[in-house]
Design brief:
202 residues, alpha+beta, five-stranded mixed β-sheet, 9 strands, 37% helix
Length: 202
Amino acid sequence: MVPMLPCADVEAMVEFWAALGLRRTDHQLRRQPSGAVTLGGIELQYYRVDGWEPAQSHSTCAVVVPDTRPLFELFSAGLRALYGRVPVAGFPRITRPRERAGDGGLSGFSVIDPAGNWVRVMRTPVPVEDEAAAPEPEPQDTRPPVERARALAADVQKAVADDDADAGRALLAALEALVVRNPSRGARSALAEARAAVASAR
């Protein structure tokens, strides 16, 4: 299923998500303006509603992924590059990941887009019948930043080898965000290797 979200300016919405790392696909500005963006298995579609007011929006959708951390880092880096900071109020904004007490302890966050739509990102839930056999929630990654950078670089190279360009770009963006926060020599070296791998695949 693909969510279809309302907005006043389709082009602005497509440009917003493109800045956050998604790729524009379908785009139509005449007759019935609409647009779509995608990243891996994620797809969002927008359609124009004249006079749409973000503050009055009640539209929402869910993006369910195995691990929310890479998307949070990707979207945060895109917002920071776009606005010079990560907005936490107004439109757009992003909420920080948190544990959902009523949802099996799964962490999640939301991006509220410029049109006021809530795009809720959450981890894949465990089926009720499998709860007893479900593993404990993954611990926070406490490895030094340089080790995390090298691991992300290896994941980028694997995605490139597997011919999964969308995953490669998403992982590369997460690595770039990590290096911005922790610009050590080793982390920068890992980023350079990952960028070279992505460039060689183009």
